[in-house]
Write a structure and sequence with these properties.
11 strands; homodimer; Jelly Rolls; 8 helices; DNA-binding; alpha+beta
Chain lengths: 249, 249
DNA sequence: CGCGAACTTGATATTTGTCAACTAAGGTGG
DNA sequence: CCACCTTAGTTGACAAATATCAAGTTCGCG
């Protein structure tokens, strides 16, 4: 049951980018990640309007925050990758303003309130890292808004692929310039605000430009430099540049 | 120099929605709001990439978070209304991932780090309210993403006008169904991800449907029910439904 | 092998952007 | 108070981006 390497624990791998964890911190995180469960693809964990009972941690697979409109159309607000958490700030949250659903099959950890309280009391570095993580999530949300408002579909999708590469690299889930991406074209479109048909065509454009290949749920970036250029991608917003040195607490 | 009423202090008015403040809390907030300065319209307070020296509080006017792309186009990520703050979480933030600029002339308070530390130590209710406020800001950001991805221009703009009405009412800055909105059509477009020309036409459509009027920087909602209906507006996401009763700290 | 989900394609409609010109409004100096 | 000047708002014609519809095709899997 013990984890072999840190990259088996995407949460640890991720949080190391946000703060310097102690061995005790890591042990605690492994302990938390121990109580996981498998969740089927396309399953809603908590729905818009419900009261959260606890927080979630994704250990494996891809989940998402999303919102569904009256007319049935869905907007994905964030992809939750391994190591990502959501609404750890339940204290001030009475009612969800969006839903959390799995996309692929996922390994999920339910984090009850008292675990968070315990972390706050005994693991300040973890808390710092989690705050950093929440900050980066919000920044990512802003970058998505920029993409939808001011980038055309090709650049926006290129940008997303760049982002996912960097985020997955940070948890050791990307080999070179490729990574598993268990999304349908519809699920891509729901994030990008595009129709399925258009996603299909944009994808073809990116393939034809020899920028990416996307076959069998695997995305390979053929020319990262050119893709970044195309997307106007600047990874600053992910705040992944190494733990803060200013650890004066 | 003393504030006459609470609604003279939009910060207090706002935070009362997020927690129950004590008289001492209110006194402290008035003290903080005392050291304000006027800032010219269209002035950048802090730029993308810079290191924040402190946080900001808007007391009057409209400011924004925004991001400017290589090609010069701008995306507004949030309107900062009176009572709104930004990056109070500086502890984990090394470098800004977006800019803060005024739109109209603004009254701004610079909040240095030590003031935040002091609030954290001595004013837990204020801290709780600020966390709630940050949560609502993030939720608003998500709602904007939904608007850009899944609403057409008319509905998206209608949605924005509904949102602004509710937010401004919460700080006593809306009379009935109208409020001052010192934005040009270009500044509206930068938030909605639309061109100026299109904003102009959408506005005409809304006027012709007798849903809103927008003359001389004043926006009047002529039929809020119909506008909400049109926009698919549900104010839940603003989390303004009254202070949390669960004040068990 | 067959079935359903995902992907692809073409034709067409709709939405939105761009360009260029024009009009209206507010502010300032003479 | 007016002349002027700049900024904001408006309009029409057109182009580009994206959505929609409908019909295939391919793929993975039981």
């Amino acid at each position: 049951m013990a984890q072999k390497h840190d990259f088996d624990s995407p949460l640890i791998a991720k949080l190391e980018h946000g703060a310097n964890l102690t061995p005790a911190d890591r042990a605690r995180l492994r302990e938390i990640a121990g109580a996981s469960r498998k969740v089927d693809p396309r399953t809603t964990l908590i729905r818009d309007g419900e009261e959260p009972r606890g927080a979630y941690l994704v250990l494996d697979g891809i989940a998402c925050r999303c919102k569904v409109l009256q007319n049935g159309s869905r907007q994905i607000l964030a992809y939750l990758l391994p190591g990502d958490t959501c609404h750890l700030d339940l204290k001030s949250l009475r009612e969800m303003d969006h839903s959390i659903s799995t996309i692929s099959e996922c390994t999920i950890v339910d984090i009850p309130r008292d675990v968070i309280d315990d972390l706050a009391l005994h693991h300040p570095h973890i808390m710092r890292a989690l705050q950093w993580s929440a900050l980066a999530d919000e920044s990512t949300l802003r970058e998505w808004l920029v993409g939808m408002g001011r980038r055309n579909a090709v650049n926006q999708m290129a940008h997303l692929f760049c982002e996912l590469l960097i985020r997955l690299r940070a948890i050791g889930h990307a080999l070179e310039d490729s990574y598993d991406l268990p999304l349908t074209q519809e699920e891509l479109g729901d994030a990008l605000g595009l129709s399925v048909v258009h996603v299909n065509r944009i994808l073809q454009a990116l393939r034809q430009e020899r920028l990416v290949s996307f076959k069998g749920r695997r995305l390979t970036i053929l020319d990262f430099e050119r893709l970044k250029e195309r997307a106007g991608f600047n990874p600053n917003y992910l705040h992944l540049t190494s733990p803060l040195q200013a650890a004066r607490t």
